[in-house]
Amino acid sequence: MMAPNGPATTVKASKSTRKAHLSVSRVEPWSVMRFSFVISLVCFIILFVAVVVLYGILSGLGVFSAITDLITSLTEGGEGDELNLQPESWFSPSRVLGYTALIGALNIILITSLSTIGAMLYNLAADLVGGFDITLSETE
């Protein structure tokens, strides 16, 4: 086929926008529980690594030994009235990382359970008011 001798014609691509109106009326609690568990586990790992790095930096700078010396000098008694505090054990790596692991485990349990309860409460509220509407649009 041969093109006409006139000016070249171009077809302008029109941008069509598709819109979809959706309503989120139910959130599956089991999916929320699994997702929140994974997210809280990742946050626990980030917290633990951050505490290890921060502890290493502060220990290398001698901050813990300075605090220990300060507490020891403040609690020394002049006439045998010395308090038995042992501040050296307060900043031991096993104690600091142990408390970090304990707080991280509690965070995992709390975040997972509270988000699962939140999903159930959302489902109850969505049954009453119908959830919330979302408008999704796609441009091609």
Sheet with the most strands: spatial strand order:
1-2
Count of separate DSSP helical elements: 3
- Which percent band covers the strand fraction? 5-15%
How many β strands by DSSP? 2
Order of helices and strands: EHHHE
The rough form would be described as elongated
- Count up the domains: 1
Assign the structural class, choosing from mainly alpha, mainly beta, alpha/beta, alpha+beta, or little secondary structure: mainly alpha
Q: How far is it from the N-terminal to the C-terminal residue, by CA?
A: 31 Å
The helix fraction, in percent, is 55-70%
Give unreliable regions as ranges.
none
For this entry, what is the oligomeric state of its chains?
single chain
The biggest beta sheet is recorded as: 2 strands, antiparallel
Quick check: average pLDDT? Answer: 85
- Report Rg: 31 Å
Topology:
Elements: E1 17-24, H1 29-61, H2 63-75, H3 93-129, E2 132-139
Antiparallel strand pairs: 1-2
Features:
140 residues, mainly alpha, 3 helices
Q: Would you write up a description of this structure?
A:
The chain has 140 residues and is mainly alpha-helical. The chain has one domain (28-76, 86-139). Helices cover 59% and strands 11% of the residues. It contains three helices and two strands. It has helices at 29-61, 63-75, 93-129, and strands at residues 17-24, 132-139. The chain has a two-stranded antiparallel ribbon with strand order 1-2. Helix 1 packs antiparallel against helix 3 (93-129). The longest helix is centred in the last third of the chain and has 37 residues, at 93-129. The chain starts with 16 loop residues before the first strand and ends with a strand. The model has no long low-confidence stretch (mean pLDDT 85).
